[in-house]
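MOLECULE: protein
FOLLOWS: sequence and fold
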Amino acid sequence: MDVIEAKQVLSALYLPQSLRGGVVERVTTMSVDEAVAGARQNVHAIGVGYKMVNGSPAQDAGLVVRIHVVQKIAPSLLPPRDRIPEQIDGVPTDIIESAPAFAIAKASAATSIAASACTGRRREAQRPLVAGISTAHQDITAGTLGYFCRSLRHGDDPRMIYILSNNHVLANVNMGAPDDRIYQPGPADGGDPTSHVANLVRYKTIDLSGAPNKVDCAIASLVPGIEWRPEICSVGRVAGITAATVGMAVCKHGRTSGFTQGSVTDINYDALIGMDHSNPSVVALFQDQIRIESPNMTAFGLGGDSGSLVVEEAKMRAVGLYFAGPPSGQYGVANQVSDVLNELEIAFVDGAEDAAIA
């Protein structure tokens, strides 16, 4: 059994139990009895990465299955049936304590480490549009404009320019309808009918029944006459796509936290994600995602950063679409960019090709 197969086995074993047990509502407790009683509903995500040894990834030891729990519990306190195995068919495991993630589009305050003009105005109206700034469906608060794209779907106008973001940013978690208005900035940042820049075209429905999802994504067509530039604020133009690898250095620019950097800690990451911060019972299972952490425990993303495009720093290739994280921003979760493009039947604009029309 290889590490991916081992992850799939453990994911199928633990995540359904945790979903039924309401894991995204769980918090750490000082009560040993409470912790032990909830041990079977403690796992909220399972991925593939490096084992943590003394706070650092042990790269020389190879990849392991990383089991993310709300609270670590000493094995000696647990009955044998509730203990997470140290290995499965020879594949080692590692237990990571972290809070469950939520897909959050809302107003939130944060300080960016980048100081470009577009960053300073990322919650304001910007024309021409760039990616990495505030946008949202007319009926929600605020998220982030991910990037610009064209449709590959038969029958669509190949000249039309679309903006990409999350379903929960542009389509209000499956509630949006074609031609709904998209504002820039989003309503939480003062967006109103005069801020209308695009119309919702399509999105991938998020299954909230417990069946697996791969993406949280949507596109909207630009209103004629809206100027745009094929670049991400403080990041630049995207130069194609690539698959994330463990340890890859990445960055993003979002509406709330601005420009942030991190590294990929988990690939093939399966997670239970809260889809409504005010109602933790609304949960979706996402499979084969990317987990990212920033250095020094700073936030990689916060509420309102949803929809940011995650880019490989070394070669400026897109790797993922950020959509969730814990309220602290301790880590972020992103869809694989190839899945987003395939599900929506789109391709990113080519920076060199499209610069003249920006």
Observations:
- The CA atoms of residues 215 and 335 lie 6 Å apart.
- The chain has six helices and 24 strands.
